[in-house]
Amino acid sequence: MLPVASGATTGVALQATQADAVSQIRSDPLLSSSLWGNVALAGLSILLFVYMGRNVTDERARLIWGATLLIPLVSISSYLGLVSGLTIGFLEMPPGHALGGQEVMVQWGRYLTWALSTPMILLALGLLADVDRASLFTVLAADIAMCVTGLAAALTTSAYLFRWVFYGVSCTFFAVVLYALLAEWPTAAVEAGTDEIFATLRVLTVVLWLGYPIVWALGAEGFAIVQSIGLTSWGYSVLDIVAKYVFAFLLLRWVAANEGTVSTTARSSAAPSTPTDD
């Protein structure tokens, strides 16, 4: 696929412009710092989380720790892909868009990391609340579908309307995730004895995740009210920092201090025994 020259009437350039992407990143301190800052924080988080989980031995607690550790592992890979230009492209916005006919930098690699990291966040929360497998699978599937249709909204250039159709579908899948977090999983967390920390992490997750579609809508990919790619990138990066690294730190600190509460053995011994016939 050949790169599209500025001013062309149609076309998409994703992989053929890595050098252009790196050059633009380097020339924009705001954009560059939003990416490199997350590389550094993800690296530090990995080291910290490995240390925090060094003494965790229970199976369920280790599953939560493993899912949480994957969050910064995926993130550092994603942000390295962005700063290298590997997962950045330039798309010409369709007619009807505020920047119609102009090429816009699209950090499509962010959608890949969201599709891999946000399920780990939900998996950790589901394990913490000890939700049933059917509910966990449904929510994880809806989350991945949300990220994939969000990517479609960002990459569609055939028609402005289709971008918003995909955006609406993505938000519908998001509503499924929100329903589980707000209505179903809290009950399971109460039964599991983890409702206090679950409530804190639930609020953190819901509030911050609502920020992502807002940043998209305001940025160059949506209504282009904020046309600075650097500002939009920082919007996503700040959300990532709190929704991933701060979230993971709070969760792992609690699990390390309350391993017995999430212990598989403790749950098994607490379960009522089945009566036997005399």
TrEMBL record:
- Residue ranges spanning the membrane: these are 35-52, 64-91, 111-129, 136-155, 161-182, 203-227, 233-252
Gene3D superfamilies assigned to the protein according to its UniProt record, in alphabetical order: Rhodopsin 7-helix transmembrane proteins
- SUPFAM superfamilies assigned: Family A G protein-coupled receptor-like
Provide the membrane topology annotation: Multi-pass membrane protein
Give the organism's phylogenetic lineage.
Answer: Archaea, Methanobacteriati, Methanobacteriota, Stenosarchaea group, Halobacteria
Q: Which organism is it from?
A: Halorientalis brevis
- Tell me the protein's name: Bacteriorhodopsin
Q: Where in the cell is it found?
A: Membrane
Entry's Gene Ontology molecular function annotations: photoreceptor activity
For this protein, the record's CDD domains field holds: 7tm_Halorhodopsin (cd15243)
The record, for PROSITE patterns, names: BACTERIAL_OPSIN_1, BACTERIAL_OPSIN_RET
